[in-house]
Design goal:
The protein is an alpha/beta fold. The protein has eight helices and eleven strands. The strands form two sheets. Strands 9-8-7-10-6-1-4-5-11 form a nine-stranded mixed beta sheet, sandwiched between helices. The longest helix has 17 residues. The radius of gyration is 20 Å and the shape is globular.
Length: 263
């Protein structure tokens, strides 16, 4: 099975204290530590497991500037067979639909059976996976936490629905799935794997190679504009717990005890 996983380089919230920039139009990005989007990491792990069971190949693709190569190589070190970098000045400032159009153009040039994305990406909007499927006119499922390959034309997927319930569906290939965290336990990426892919050539494709109309992408084609970033004001009675995870847990337990929530 040919599996494509769409991945993204994002600020690592566990390593950074995210602050809004002075002009309010973006976060402070200087000196931020970046990593693979968490949901995408689960998607790559699942793709590798599918390949190991059924054969085929796993390809990872990322839309972004030169720095995106960092996460592409990391996922190749994890076990992906191939990496693709989609990069062009005209891509900068694309909204979710623009990113989906860029990825759709690449997918159409390949022969993929299954396309995976993380549930949460694209600034948390969780929209690119569904948009790709709509543009391709392929079946789509989100919040997927179980994938079972039935045969070379059908997969069975489990997904989270309201109330903590689980829903199962059979879906015909090719299709697009957005992967939820917890579907697996992503493997550790060791230094040996990183060294192994350090010199592997990663092809870069721009708008002309993909055949994407420049008027439909970038700032020019974007229908969504970011106009403001801000930190919400604390509500009445709200309290921010500070410290490491263990310290915050201890504080929370003390608060619940004091309010009669637990004994």
């Amino acid at each position: 099975m040919e599996v494509l996983v769409c991945i993204k380089r994002v600020p690592d919230t566990s390593e950074n204290e995210i602050q809004v920039g002075k002009d309010g139009t973006d976060i402070e990005r200087e000196d931020l530590v970046y990593s693979i989007n968490e949901w995408d990491n689960y998607a790559v792990e699942e793709a590798i497991r599918i390949r190991d069971k059924t054969g085929g190949r796993v390809t990872v693709v990322s839309v972004g500037k030169a720095e995106a190569e960092e996460v592409i190589r990391r996922q190749m070190a994890m076990g992906a067979d191939k990496g693709i970098h989609l990069s062009d000045e005209t891509f900068n400032g694309s909204d979710g639909k623009g990113i989906a159009a860029i990825l759709k153009a690449h997918i159409e040039k390949g022969a993929y059976d299954l396309v995976l994305t993380g549930v949460q990406a694209d600034d948390g909007a969780g929209q690119v996976g569904g948009m790709i499927a709509a543009m391709l006119k392929w079946p789509f499922a989100s919040l997927v936490n179980v994938i079972e390959v039935v045969d070379d034309k059908t997969i069975r997927v489990g997904r989270e629905i309201a109330g903590g319930n689980q829903e199962f569906n059979e879906i015909k290939l090719p299709c697009v799935l957005s992967i939820q965290t917890g579907i697996n336990e992503p493997r550790y990426v060791g230094i040996r794997g990183i060294r192994k892919v350090a010199s592997v050539e990663i092809p870069v494709y721009g708008a002309s190679e993909l055949g994407v109309p420049v008027e439909s992408i970038g700032k020019v084609g974007s229908k969504v504009k970011k106009i403001d970033y801000f930190v919400p004001e604390l509500g009445k009675g709200a309290e921010i717990l500070e410290g490491n995870t263990d310290e915050i847990i201890d504080q929370l337990i003390d608060i619940l005890k004091s309010k009669g929530g637990i004994r």
